[in-house]
UniProtKB/TrEMBL annotation, chain A:
Protein keywords: Iron, Iron-sulfur, Magnesium, Metal-binding, Oxidoreductase, Thiamine pyrophosphate
Cofactor list: thiamine diphosphate; Mg(2+); [4Fe-4S] cluster
Species: Thermus thermophilus (strain ATCC 27634 / DSM 579 / HB8)
Database matches in InterPro entries: 2-oxoacid:Fd_oxidoreductase, OFOB, PFO_beta_C, THDP-binding, TPP_enzyme_TPP-bd
Keyword Cytoplasm belongs to the record: no
Signal peptide: none
GO BP of this protein: cellular respiration
Gene Ontology molecular function, alphabetical: iron-sulfur cluster binding; metal ion binding; oxidoreductase activity, acting on the aldehyde or oxo group of donors, iron-sulfur protein as acceptor; thiamine pyrophosphate binding
Domain Pyruvate ferredoxin oxidoreductase beta subunit C-terminal: 201-276
One Pfam entry name: TPP_enzyme_C
Name recorded for this polypeptide: 2-oxoacid-ferredoxin oxidoreductase beta chain
Every Thiamine pyrophosphate enzyme TPP-binding domain range: 50-197
Automatic annotation (TrEMBL), chain B:
Domain Pyruvate/ketoisovalerate oxidoreductase catalytic, first and last residues per copy: 13-211
Record keyword Oxidoreductase present: yes
Organism: Thermus thermophilus (strain ATCC 27634 / DSM 579 / HB8)
GO terms under biological process: response to oxidative stress
Oxidoreductase is among the record's keywords: yes
UniProt protein name: 2-oxoacid--ferredoxin oxidoreductase, alpha chain
PANTHER family registered for this protein in UniProt: PYRUVATE FLAVODOXIN_FERREDOXIN OXIDOREDUCTASE DOMAIN PROTEIN, PYRUVATE-FLAVODOXIN OXIDOREDUCTASE-RELATED
Length: 304, 616
């Protein structure tokens, strides 16, 4: 592969996000992470849903697929399963992933396909002018809402945990360095990684702003929290880990933790596919089998 | 005998399916061509289900209105089907059910019970009385105590009653064949195909024991025609799955739905065989199914999904996405009775317009429909090839009737087609974006799977420029819209005419059909003069058939309410369709219905719209 510079990962296309948008930070962190991991752009694909965040792929020099509202995970999983050698990152907003795409969010957790999903959480539907997203709290009223939010907040970390994501973390859009490290870890994790990114929306969300977040955020790992869940943990030890996870995932208000919450080792979907498709590692769908189809053999069971 | 129809009815899950397969294989071994139709409820166990095995000296796909031989494995079958046994035909039944009255049959539809009660002039007649009424009308009742025979044979073999009664299907088939003076040997061969080990041994002994019983002489017998090597017997869903494998399918997604799921399950069950490497993923819903298949296609895998009406409705957005980003995708659509949940296990051709038009905006898609089991095998290959040639969505239409229809075929007819024409970009050296959507000379730009070395590009469901970036520029919009839509003209030009339609016979009255009316109409032609048949294989882009229709009395025959093909023909050819023969009760058109309807047209006594209503 060619020696690439950090700038090579950035596309010519200029972002059209609002000034001060958290998306810029996430884009930079993703670009830096791919560069530092030396991922070959031609073997890397970034998928997105619909919304402001979903424009991310257009600003990166890798294969970029801007899919449909809520459907980023099925498309990304399909590509990764067809060619397991690809580096796959899926991105989308809170409405995209936890509103219209919630079913896919949950089902993806059950599969554990080896890829990273980054959820940009600004609590609002930005591109349609600030309606309440699924992570906005009950009774909260941003300046874009005519009335306080009558629906309650969904906790992305708890949902990811319940669904079976094997790596769960939270980052902050304005902490680009910290975010970059999380993205790198998420990409390198073997299995489905979920990165929840807190991201102010300077245009529509006047409740949870940069000023609101700054004094509240703290880093889990700096306080000695160990997310690692090794295989073969005793049931008691696993229980303790889960309680600790839940406590941290629910922490919101005066103190808000960021960092890695959960890191488990479980077989990926690619490994599970091998059970009924023994030749999958070599003859994955994008490549195809070595042997021609034995139609004659297949027809034997239909002999009259 | 030239042909014969044997029907077996009983509770779902009670072995009648195995019985029909055994019967079909046993007579197939003796040289008869067979076709088996399956009717069942949306239910796991207990509700009424029946199968017709039609045998003939030449290949058949149509089914008759009257059966020659009915096997009733329960009382409900008598109540439902006695009216469909031909005069002089036979009904084999267990006499222990005769004391039951219609009201004691909990699953029998009220409408059927009421009709029978009215016919007999009684409030709640017993099955004995019902049977008697039909016997007077010419049906031959043959009591056969299936369970008692099972117990007796079981006792002789030292097998407990519960186990012996599991062979009721074999007993029913053996009794039928024995009564028909058909030899035992082909049945033993059929049993060997169906069962293994201890179970085979037991069933074999049971069949032999049945053949030792006294059997009354019937006025007709079934002879052996001769050996029939090289034939196979399979269903439409199996044929479609095999066709997908022959066409190089590598990735299939599905969400469970009747009657489409059989295909995906078949694929999953055979992935260990050489060359049958298909990753089959059961998704959370049909939205995921279509989008995951698109993702796999983008990475370079031949990908498809299979579904039925409700699932296809959910896929509409994903299909537009595939059309917009020019992803090669096959959707195998097994139509069933709609709208909404409709008739989940009954047949219909109600999705033609939806397959062609469903979704917002406009994008090129190809729609082809299979008329029979061999078509299903060949069309599945064509669908994959066309999806990759034209880099777009191909909808392959089948229906419930075809999915569950089983037929004997000469094995050599299942040919692997050599279809190519996909335009892929070769990897290159260096680093930089590909112009994925720059129009090529023939309108097609090379397909570049994700992971192709040397570069990258973008794909978006938004309108885009040649690199795949979002644009709202008027000229780029026009360019890309035209680039995509012109693929339809290219397809119409390139696809051989024999893959677009077949004029089986010309006539002053010209029948137009698509999909599974094919077999019935082809056989109906044998009974009609001056009637031709034009079978449409490619439904979109619509073939240029107008010159063939000139000066003809045009009739469409299809399984839907409005006559969707008739609308399409009128729209695309500007020719008026004079008669629409339609059927929408979920049951396939019978041979007699087709012949009668077309005779009426030929003789000028048919209305513009003719509704067919037969079926059980």
């Amino acid at each position: 592969m060619l020696e690439l510079k950090l700038a090579d990962y950035k596309a010519e296309k200029q972002p059209d996000w609002c000034p001060g948008c958290g998306d810029y930070g996430i884009l930079s962190a993703l670009q830096m992470a791919l560069f530092e991991l030396k991922r070959d752009p031609s073997q890397t694909a970034v998928f997105s849903g619909i919304g402001c965040s979903a424009k991310t792929p257009h600003y990166l020099n890798v294969y970029g697929v801007h899919t449909l509202h809520g459907r980023v995970l099925p498309v990304a999983q399909g590509a990764k399963l067809a060619n397991p050698h690809l580096t796959v990152v899926a991105v989308g907003g809170d409405g995209d992933g936890l509103g219209i795409g919630a079913g896919h969010f949950v089902a993806a957790g059950r599969r554990n396909v080896d890829m990273l999903y980054i959820l940009y959480d600004n609590e609002v539907y930005g591109l349609t002018k600030g309606q309440a997203g699924p992570t906005l709290g009950l009774g909260e009223k941003t300046k874009s809402l005519p009335k306080p939010n009558p629906q309650s907040r969904l906790n992305p970390l708890l949902l990811a945990f319940a669904a079976g994501y094997t790596w769960i973390a939270r980052g902050y859009a304005y902490d680009v360095k910290g975010l970059k490290e999380l993205i790198k870890e998420g990409i390198e994790h073997r299995g489905l990684a979920f990165l929840h990114v807190l991201q102010p929306c300077p245009t529509y969300n006047d409740l949870h702003t940069k000023e609101w977040f700054a004094p509240r955020l703290y880093k889990l790992q700096e306080e000695g929290y160990d997310p690692h869940v090794p295989a073969g943990l005793s049931p008691e030890e696993l229980d303790r880990k889960m309680m600790l996870f839940q406590e941290k995932a629910l922490e919101w208000g005066e103190r808000i933790p960021v960092g890695v919450f959960w890191k488990a080792e479980l077989p990926t979907f690619e490994a599970r596919l091998k059970a009924y498709l023994p030749r999958y590692p070599e003859a994955y769908p994008a490549r195809g089998p070595e042997a021609p189809l034995d139609l004659e053999g297949l027809l034997q069971e239909f002999a009259l | 005998m030239e042909e014969f129809t044997w029907r077996v009815g009983g509770p779902q899950g009670g072995g009648i399916e195995t019985a029909a397969t055994l019967f079909a294989r046993a007579v197939g071994k003796g040289g008869w061509w067979v076709a088996t139709k399956r009717e069942y409820h949306s239910n796991i166990m207990g509700r009424h289900s029946y199968l017709d095995v039609r045998l003939a000296r030449k290949p058949v796909q149509a089914f008759r209105e009257r059966v020659d031989f009915l096997v009733a494995l329960d009382g409900e079958t008598l109540a439902r089907h006695l009216g469909e046994v031909r005069e002089g035909g036979v009904v084999l039944y267990d006499p222990k059910v005769l004391e039951l009255t219609l009201h004691k049959l909990p699953m029998l539809d009220h409408r059927v019970a009421e009709d029978l009660a009215k016919r007999l002039g009684q409030a709640d007649p017993s099955l004995k009385e019902v049977l008697q009424a039909y016997a007077e009308a010419g049906v031959q009742p043959l009591p056969y105590p299936f369970e008692a025979v099972a117990d007796r044979i079981g006792e002789a073999l030292g097998v407990p009653s519960l186990k012996a009664r599991r062979t009721l299907n074999t007993i029913a088939v053996a009794a039928s064949l024995h009564l028909l003076s058909y030899p035992l040997e082909p049945l033993l061969q059929a049993l060997a195909l169906q069962f293994r080990g201890e179970v085979l041994e037991l069933n074999r002994k049971v069949a032999e024991a049945v053949y030792r019983e006294e059997a009354p002489r019937l006025p007709f017998r079934l002879e052996v025609l001769g050996p029939a090597p090289g034939r196979i017997y399979l269903t439409g869903a199996q044929a479609a799955a095999l066709g997908k494998l022959a066409g190089g399918l590598r990735f299939q997604t599905y969400y469970p739905i009747s009657p489409a799921t059989d295909e995906s399950v078949f694929l999953e069950a055979h992935t260990h065989l050489p060359g049958a490497d298909v990753a089959v993923v059961q998704t959370e819903d049909e939205i995921a199914a279509v989008n995951m298949a698109v993702g796999a296609a983008l990475a370079g895998a031949k990908a498809a999904t299979a579904t039925s009406g409700p699932g296809f409705s959910l896929m509409a957005e994903g299909l537009g996405f595939a059309g917009m980003i020019e992803a090669p995708l096959v959707v195998t659509l097994y139509q069933r009775g709609g709208p909404s949940t409709g008739l989940p296990t009954r047949t219909e051709q109600g999705d033609l317009m939806f397959a062609i038009r469903g979704g917002h905006g406009e994008y090129p898609r190809l729609v082809l429909a299979s008329g029979d089991i061999l078509d299903a095998f060949l069309d599945a290959q064509k669908a994959l090839a066309w999806a990759w040639r034209y880099q777009t969505v191909v909808v392959h239409l089948l229906d419930k009737f075809l999915a569950s229809l089983a037929q004997s075929l000469p094995k050599e007819a299942l040919k692997v087609l050599s279809l190519d024409g996909e335009k892929r970009l070769s990897p290159r050296e260096g680093f930089g974006p590909y112009q994925r959507y720059a129009p090529g000379e023939d309108g097609l730009s090379p397909f570049i799977p994700i992971g192709t070395p040397g570069g990258f590009y973008w794909m978006t469901s938004d309108e885009h420029d040649p690199l795949g970036h979002i644009t709202e520029d008027v000229e780029l919009r026009e360019l890309q819209m035209e680039k995509r839509m012109e693929k339809l003209e290219l397809a119409r030009k390139e696809i051989p005419l024999e893959d677009q339609y077949t004029l089986f016979r010309d006539g002053e009255v010209l029948v137009l059909g698509w999909g599974t009316v094919k077999g019935t109409l082809l056989e109906a032609l044998d009974h009609l003069e001056g009637v031709g048949y034009l079978h449409l294989r490619l439904l979109w882009p619509f073939p240029r058939i107008a010159p063939l229709l000139e000066g003809k009395t045009l009739v469409t025959v299809e399984h839907n309410y409005s006559g969707q093909l008739a609308d399409l023909v009128q729209q695309e050819t500007l020719k008026r369709v004079h008669h629409r023969v339609v059927k929408y009760n979920g049951r396939p058109i019978t041979l007699e219905e087709a012949v009668e309807a077309l005779k009426a047209v030929r003789e000028g006594r048919a209305p513009e719209r003719l509704v067919l209503r037969k079926g059980v």
